[in-house]
């Protein structure tokens, strides 16, 4: 696999896209998924995919955001960037997507078709809250900031690996994909479905990613999922068997 740009630029490219989205959401007050859709539809994403050095290295995250908006014909007042030291869920979302694009060498538009921005942000928020609650009360502000940076990086690495592991082979439709499609059809995020079904969020993610076999799930999980997804328990098992044949 020949990548569009060298490994040495990988972290800078990921960081640049992360800061673009962080600025777009927290300074320009745009919706994260909408901004990423604009990025994917603009010529800016094509330059990124081709490894254009001026785009990846020569522009700041703020300049990248305005470049996308300009290309899409959307006018916004030019304001200075504001980034928190520990960085936001939106920063790590775009960082993750840039890293997936680098590793798989596929268009951003293809990644965004089956990457749930809402799930990433809500799950990041939930795990970040748990992480903060686990910190000792005596920790210094400096230690807290460094800890949040470490948490963000680890969370993003796991998200990249989970997306790549759960990505079906070309032309296949595995059980995880079918379960995910049923969830989306019912307008539910992963966290909403997991809570409603009484299933640990991580377990549901593993079913969707194909890391766990839903055909071997506990009976109460199958029954609960089927009820919420408006289908019969036997159909979930049937989908599993079809995808295994």
How would you characterize the overall build of this protein?
By secondary structure, this protein is mainly alpha-helical. The chain folds into two domains: 7-166, no CATH class; 175-244, lambda repressor-like DNA-binding domains (434 Repressor (Amino-terminal Domain), Orthogonal Bundle), CATH 1.10.260. Helix content is 68%, strand content 0%. It has helices spanning 10-26, 32-41, 43-50, 53-56, 61-71, 89-104, 108-113, 117-134, 141-166, 175-185, 190-197, 201-209, 219-228, 233-244.
**Domain count:** 2
Name the helix and strand elements from N-terminus to C-terminus, one letter apiece.
HHHHHHHHHHHHHH
Low-confidence segments, given as residue ranges, are: 169-173, 238-245
**Average pLDDT across residues?**
84
**Number of β-strand runs:** 0
Overall morphology = globular
Which structural class fits the helix and strand makeup? mainly alpha
**Annotation field: number of helices:** 14
- How far apart the termini lie comes to 30 Å
Gyration radius over CA: 20 Å
Largest sheet: none
Helix content: 55-70%
Strand content: under 5%
What features would you highlight for this structure?
434 Repressor (Amino-terminal Domain); 68% helix; disordered C terminus; mainly alpha; single chain; 245 residues; 14 helices
């Amino acid at each position: 696999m020949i990548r569009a740009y060298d490994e040495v630029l990988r972290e800078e490219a990921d960081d640049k896209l992360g800061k673009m989205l962080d600025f777009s959401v927290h300074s320009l007050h745009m919706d994260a998924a909408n901004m990423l859709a604009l990025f994917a539809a603009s010529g800016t994403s094509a330059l990124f995919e081709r490894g254009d050095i001026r785009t990846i290295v020569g522009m700041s995250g703020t300049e990248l955001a305005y470049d996308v908006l300009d290309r899409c014909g959307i006018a916004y007042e030019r304001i200075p960037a504001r980034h928190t030291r520990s960085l936001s869920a939106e920063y790590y979302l775009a960082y993750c997507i840039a890293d997936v694009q680098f590793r798989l060498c596929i268009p951003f538009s293809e990644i965004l078709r089956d990457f749930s921005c809402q799930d990433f942000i809500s799950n990041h928020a939930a795990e970040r809250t748990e992480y903060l609650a686990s910190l000792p009360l005596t920790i210094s502000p400096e230690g807290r900031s460094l800890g949040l940076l470490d948490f963000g990086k680890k969370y993003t690495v796991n998200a990249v690996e989970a997306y790549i592991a759960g990505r079906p082979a070309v032309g296949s439709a595995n059980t995880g994909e079918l379960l995910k499609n049923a969830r989306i059809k019912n307008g539910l995020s992963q966290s909403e479905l997991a809570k409603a079904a009484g299933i640990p969020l991580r377990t549901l993610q593993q079913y969707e990613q194909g890391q766990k076999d839903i055909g071997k799930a506990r009976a109460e999980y199958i029954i609960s999922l089927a009820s919420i997804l408006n289908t019969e328990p036997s159909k979930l098992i049937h989908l599993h068997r079809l995808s295994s044949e």
